[in-house]
Design brief:
The complex is a heterodimer of chains A (345) and B (633).
Chain A (H helix, E strand, L loop, with lengths): L1 E10 L2 E11 L4 E5 L6 H9 L6 E6 L2 E2 L10 E4 L11 H11 L4 H14 L4 H4 L8 H13 L5 E5 L7 H18 L2 E6 L2 H7 L2 E6 L2 E6 L1 H6 L4 H6 L3 E4 L1 H9 L9 E5 L4 E2 L8 E12 L3 E8 L2 E8 L11 E6 L5 E3 L4 H5 L1
Parallel strand pairs in A: 3-8, 3-9, 6-7, 7-8
Antiparallel strand pairs in A: 1-2, 1-4, 4-5, 9-10, 11-12, 12-18, 13-17, 14-15, 14-17, 15-16
Chain B lengths: L2 H41 L12 H8 L2 H32 L5 H8 L7 H12 L4 H9 L10 H12 L2 H12 L3 H9 L4 H29 L3 H6 L4 H9 L9 H28 L21 H28 L4 H6 L15 E7 L5 E9 L5 H34 L4 H15 L2 H11 L18 H27 L3 H9 L4 H29 L3 H6 L7 H11 L9 H26 L4 H28 L1
Antiparallel strand pairs in B: 1-2
Helix pairs in contact in B: 1-13, 1-18, 3-4, 3-7, 3-8, 3-10, 4-14, 5-14, 5-23, 5-24, 8-10, 9-10, 10-13, 12-13, 13-18, 14-24, 16-17, 16-19, 16-21, 16-23, 17-19, 18-19, 19-21, 20-21, 21-24, 23-24
Classes of the chains: A alpha+beta (345), B mainly alpha (633).
């Protein structure tokens, strides 16, 4: 469906994208994930035509659109700020693209009302000014506006970043539902890894203008291909030389020359060991209470390990308590050191 | 590349070329060349022997009394800075910061100068405070030792301009004070600061940038003062330039070159001041770091004595602002005899100053009664007055619109080419007229275009006969460019860049995006600038006086003429009454425009829709009530 081939984008002397290549399948919910300044929005803007790459090509349905003007690309966007036209009503906002295409009035009216119904906007809301709508409603208008012209692809540039935490979660679910309903190929840009993991069919993790990994949420999270990805996605424990040596001494097969990591939820406390698990003695240093779960800081094997325990009323520990820490070396993610870059992380 | 795109690019290219051509024409033809001509005219002065003597004027300047005009203007400007700031800051603090009873009414009074300014205001003050003015006469009757001549020369100009020039304070300082985060005031109070200390240490520092700009603007206004010194008799630079411009070499030594020299001196002062201002502005302002601003709450003055004094002060200022307005309104409905006697006659009111005509019977020196037909005429029945109003209306509306259009197109270009040289050049070129005093521009136009050898205007003499109207429109437009640019540019910053991207993504080209997305957003600001431009130009005096052409007699000049001709030989008997009536008319027009622009035009779409819904509900309620009544009947 979408194929980006070796895209290079430069702003003056600064190279923003160093040869990005991605293939997005039809109907897929595909996320560009990465910290700010990593090139994810630049890639999106290259796809939509706001930026012309210095090198490389953009293909949609096997058609080269690298030099096709923005307005002729047939790619819808939902902007970070929604970019709803403040001087127009909700109706006029949605109808804008159709009016530009010079469609007949009855046709415009029909299509606007159809899409409004699909995104759950009432007739009354259609006649309101966008400023009279809530954040969630505004988002639906932005989506309706992007979809009404029947684009082949819809791009969303951090559409939830302006909302409060509760609404974000609510709208995230709505977004996914809508995407499934419309079945449209969606490119989603975010820096929020939780959002990316919950929404996406596949994720491309960006860093400093290159893609570090493309994969399903499970692949990216549990089988991070690079040290950056494993650090960026979710919280993680870096296993220092002392604990690595300790684990090796009790039979673990870990390469001490590599950088070794372990996810928080893969470490267990005070449970009978399962096959492959090694046991270390530890002391609870402190805890962070999150409600749903508790994060413990436990000193074991000469370093502090972060551990997550479900707040089920059973495994509750207090500071200074002696505990048994269980680690399965098979769950260690190991990476070859890459010089300075790796050290920075 | 598709055909439609090719077409679009061609159209855009053509548009750009035409735009560039027009802009170059405007800048060189109507800004640079005429003014350079004035500058060079100084150095091509001929002495008595007919030889060119480049330094003749400069020698004359130091030998003659020309320095007096410069010094007088400087004195006025310096004094105005003090008085206008005192009054301007007071009116804003009294209505926005302190809890003064009746603040809303007070604010309306203080803001009257927005609709009542220029010549109308000066003649209004003259009407009240001149030695034979209504108030001076009343005061002299009440206090026998009262100096009837208090309102002349410097005192009169300073008094009038002090109150006339606070409009900018009322607009901009008010916004600045409203932008203060009230939490900072509360924090200071919480840390033990007394109210006065809070005002001095927390509130004032945030107002300093605005006050600085206002001070510079006030200084320039004082330096370039025209209508007040002319009408109240004070020898400052601008009236002298206008006098010299109309003089000839037969009467005095090189008047034109002297006028040019004075203009250049004025320009130099302006340039220095604006350089200082822009250097200061570049240093940056105190930006509020607050993310959650709270609205300023009015501060109660806890000391009862101070509170009473503040109230007295507020209402005295209110009276000073309101008296001329109220008197003008009242006297516009008075008969000519009451106005002539400078006494309010509550028993007879008339509309003749507005509508219709009356004959005037008077006793000649030979003891005979004579009737002058139609000598008393209303504003709408008097050809001269209506002519002035119509002329000013047409010239100002065209120029105000032209200035807005040029600036909107330019701003669109500037914002599209942010950081590029072409955008910066365009911006500075449009700000260029700011460096030049209005009078220099008009004077330059008058001398430069009074010739049939300016090829780029088709060798037409633009100062000749009706052509002068075109010249006035150009002068009005050029003079209003910098102000329009500053205001409209600010509104362009409010356009979210993503909106433009969104429109283009939805298939709109550059022109459609501009017309349907960007223009509606900036329109309220553009209309506001248009209204302010129009109001200022409609009552302007300086420029049309400099042009001094009977084909470009503006409303302000008609008003001035009315002061001079009143009642001579039984003509224009009710000139003062008609002047009052026309001032009332102008106040109504200006007020209506400001209301439409700020009151109605500033509403966003949501507010407009709510407003519409409210009216619909009201209408439905009334029709329902009507139906019910019918049914019961």
């Amino acid at each position: 469906m979408i194929r980006l081939n070796d895209i290079v984008v430069k702003f003056g002397d600064f190279t923003a994208l160093h040869g990005i290549s991605v293939h997005v399948k039809e109907g897929e919910f595909f996320t560009f994930l990465g910290p700010s300044g990593c090139g994810k929005t630049t890639t999106l803007r290259t796809l939509t035509g706001f930026i012309e790459p210095v090198e490389g090509s953009v293909f949609v349905k096997d058609k080269d659109i690298t030099h096709v003007p923005i307005e002729d690309r047939n790619i819808g966007i939902v902007f970070q700020s929604y970019a709803l036209f403040p001087t127009m009503t909700v109706y006029d906002n949605i109808a804008f693209g159709l009016k530009v295409k010079k469609l007949k009035k009855p046709e415009i009216d029909k299509r606007v009302r159809e899409i409004a119904k699909k995104v759950d906007l009432s007739d009354e809301q259609l006649m309101k000014a966008v400023s009279q709508l809530s954040g969630g409603q505004q988002q639906r208008v932005a989506i309706a506006r992007a979809l009404v012209t029947g684009p082949a692809i819809i791009c969303m540039d951090e559409p939830l970043s302006n909302l409060d935490a509760k609404l974000r979660v609510q709208l995230r679910n709505e977004l996914k539902k809508m995407q499934k309903e419309f079945g449209i190929t969606t490119i989603y840009v975010t820096h929020d890894q939780e959002e990316a993991l919950t929404l996406s069919d596949r994720i491309a993790v960006f860093n400093k203008g290159v893609i570090e990994q493309v994969g399903t949420p499970n692949q990216v999270y549990n089988h991070s291909e690079t040290e950056f990805v494993c650090n960026f996605i979710g919280d993680i424990n870096r296993l220092g030389p002392e604990i690595v040596d300790g684990l090796i001494n009790i039979g673990a097969d870990i390469d001490p020359k590599k950088h070794n990591y372990m996810r928080l939820e893969r470490i267990h406390v005070n449970v009978p060991p399962r096959p492959g698990e090694l046991v270390l003695d530890g002391v609870v240093d402190s805890l962070e209470y999150y409600g749903l779960y508790i994060k413990y800081y436990i000193t074991a094997g000469g370093q502090t390990l972060k551990v997550i325990e479900k707040n089920d009323g059973v495994n509750i520990y207090s500071p200074q308590q002696q505990v048994k820490v269980l680690i399965n070396p098979a769950h260690v993610m190991a990476y070859e050191p890459k010089g300075e870059e790796a050290e920075e992380i | 590349m598709s055909k439609s795109l090719d077409k679009r690019l061609k159209a855009e290219f053509l548009f750009r070329i035409i735009g560039l051509g027009l802009f170059v024409y405007l800048f060189f033809g109507f800004m640079l060349l005429p003014c350079l001509n004035t500058l060079t005219s100084i150095f091509t002065t001929k002495n008595a022997a007919g030889e060119t003597d480049p330094l003749a004027v400069i020698r004359f300047f130091f030998a003659g009394n020309m320095g007096k005009y410069v010094w007088n203007s400087l004195k006025l400007a310096l004094c105005l800075v003090v008085t206008v700031n005192i009054v301007g800051v007071s009116i804003v603090l009294l209505t926005e910061y302190f809890d003064i009873k009746g603040a809303k009414i007070l604010r309306l009074g203080y803001m009257t100068t927005l609709i009542y300014s220029g010549v109308a205001l000066v003649t209004g003050y003259l009407f009240l405070y001149a030695p034979d003015g209504i108030l001076t006469t009343a005061l002299a009757n009440a206090f026998p030792g009262f100096n009837e001549n208090w309102f002349t020369g410097f005192n009169a100009v300073l008094f009038t301009m002090t109150f006339a020039c606070t409009s900018n304070h009322a607009l901009f300082l008010r916004n600045a004070i409203r932008g203060i985060d009230y939490n900072t005031v509360e924090a200071a109070r919480n840390m033990g600061a007394k109210p006065f200390k809070v005002l001095w240490k927390v509130v004032f520092p945030t107002l300093i940038p605005t006050m600085f700009s206002l001070t510079v603007m006030t200084f320039i206004t004082g330096l370039c003062a025209m209508s007040a010194p002319t009408l109240l008799g004070y020898d400052s630079i601008n009236p002298e330039i206008v006098r010299l411009a109309g003089s000839s070499t037969a009467d005095e030594a090189f008047p034109q070159a002297r006028a040019a020299l004075l203009s250049i001196i004025l320009a130099m002062f302006t340039i220095i001041l604006l350089t200082v201002l822009s250097a200061y502005e570049r240093k940056g302002h105190y930006l509020s770091v607050s993310k959650t601003k709270t609205k300023l709450e009015k501060q109660k003055i806890t000391n009862p004595v101070a509170n009473v004094l503040a109230h007295i002060y507020a209402y005295v200022l209110f009276v000073i602002y309101m008296i001329p307005v109220v008197m003008i309104i009242i006297f516009s409905f008075q008969t000519y005899s009451a106005i002539r006697m400078k006494k309010l006659d509550l028993s007879s009111w008339t509309l003749v100053n507005f509508f219709g005509q009356e004959d005037y019977m008077y006793l000649t020196s030979r003891g005979q009664y004579k009737v002058r037909e139609g000598s008393i005429s209303g504003l709408f029945a008097n050809d001269a007055t209506m002519g002035g109003i119509k002329m000013s209306f047409m010239l100002s509306i065209v120029a105000a619109a032209l200035a807005c259009i040029i600036v909107v197109v330019a701003c669109n270009y500037i914002f599209k080419h942010k950081g590029k040289k072409s955008g910066v050049i365009l911006e500075y070129a449009l700000l260029f007229p700011w460096l030049l005093p209005t009078i220099l521009i008009c004077y330059s136009y008058r001398t430069y275009f009074n010739s049939e050898s300016i090829w780029y205007v088709g060798n037409y003499n633009l100062y000749y006969a009706q052509n002068v109207r075109l010249l006035i429109i150009m002068a009005y437009t050029v003079v209003k460019l910098p102000f329009s640019l500053r205001m409209i540019r600010a509104s362009f910053y409010a356009i979210d860049e993503e909106l433009e991207d969104a429109a283009r993504n939805l298939g709109a080209g550059g022109f459609t995006t501009f017309m349907r997305v960007k223009l509606p957003i900036i329109l309220p600001s553009v209309l506001a600038v248009f209204a302010l431009n129009f109001n200022a130009l409609f009552t302007e005096y300086d420029m049309s006086a400099t042009f001094a052409s009977s084909y470009g007699t503006s409303y302000a000049m008609v008003i001035q003429a009315m002061c001079a001709e009143e009642g001579l030989y039984g003509y224009n008997v009710n000139a003062s009454g008609r002047r009052c009536a026309s001032t009332v008319f102008i106040m109504l027009v200006s007020g209506l425009i400001l209301y439409l622009v700020y009151g109605v035009g500033a509403r966003d779409l949501g507010e407009r829709l709510e407003h519409r819904a409210k009216w619909r509900r009201r209408f439905e309620r009334i029709t329902a009530l009507g139906k019910k009544k019918k049914e019961t009947a």
